[in-house]
Hints:
Elements (H helix, E strand, L loop, with lengths): L3 E7 L10 E10 L19 H15 L4 E10 L5 H9 L4 E5 L2 H8 L8 E4 L16 E3 L4 H15 L3 E6 L3 H16 L3 E7 L10 H9 L7 E5 L19 E3 L4 E3 L10 H12 L5 H20 L4 H9 L5 E2 L5 E4 L6 E2 L2 E4 L4 E5 L31
Parallel strand pairs: 2-3, 2-4, 4-5, 5-6, 7-8, 7-9, 9-10
Antiparallel strand pairs: 1-3, 11-15, 12-13, 13-14, 15-16
Helix pairs in contact: 1-8, 4-5, 8-9
Amino acid sequence: MFRIVLTIAILATAAPAWAELPVAITYLRLEVDRPPVLSNLDPVPEDLGVAGAEIAIADTQTTGSFLGHSYSLTLASIPPGGDLTTAAREALKTSRLILIDADPATILSVADLPEAQGALLFNVSSGAENLRSGDCRANLLHTIPEDAARTDALMQVLQRKQWQTTVLVTGSHPADQAFAEALRRSATKFGITIAAEKDWTFDTDLRESTMDEIPRFTEGFPDHDVILVADETDDFGRYIEHNAWLPRPVAGSDGMVPTAWASVIESWGAVQLQNRFEDHALRPMRGLDYAAWAAIRAIGEAVTRTGSSDPATLRAFLLNPDFQMDGFKGRGLSFRAWNGQLRQPIAVVNSRALVTLAPVEGFLHQRNEMDTLGLDEPESACTAFKGAP
């Protein structure tokens, strides 16, 4: 069952009717039951991701209205445990441009629908490696950074600072485990040592006992420069910093965090985007919002340049080596032709400031320095893009 279907249509008024080009986009979301966490200070917004798509539609129509392009955004939000493929089939009857906000398995189930062949889909939520490697699909592009890009960015920063010995604390949820595995691979890739690991198993209320419990939990770690935290559900990481046995910085899911977007990004015109978003959503922009924004801006750029809303035409334009779009992060964004991942700088931030944007200076690549982040072409097992139209 659909919970909510909301359509936002912004019609072109500056162009004659005969020139109008309709561009129908659907935001397809599978809602999730989020596990209980120790703190409720940072609740997950109900419009996470969707708000980014909405502001992008408004941004895109500013240009589109002069060209006779009419953009519409439809939200199909499915309750936890619901059947997103049924909603996808319905959406694909009227829209061939789909943003998907769901888990990796569900994303693949939508991409594999017979009705989705010939459509253009954008993964805006999952950083799973398999979607960019052996399980890639030719009709699926990715605007959310892969987990490996985020962890590679963090390891570049640690290497640059010569903080080369770390320990790792990992939560119990699947997202925590996946992020921990990405941290391990990136540490090996950039010569960072993970000297010891522990799983987070506490179920007590740390809000009243952090000064007792956290020192005992971390006391047995060997000497280290940084504590890596894999806590993608935002459960316990906030309590480790300033409470560990050794006074060391925290990085990963908390402390110094690699992310697609954060409110502390202020240069390269980013303040304009931040302000427009906050005026619209009444909150700061987050990484998933940015991924949805980037997907629709990419569609808009392709429609503007090609004069078409045909998915195959737009896909070919986006995967062309000459394609670039501004992402308010100091470098032009482009798609990798071998797996459909959007190349983008990764912001490494703390709660109050931008530490740096990766790739960090000094990490070179023969083609594009942003390909030092995440799966490079020789590392990806993706074959779906080879020879695909």
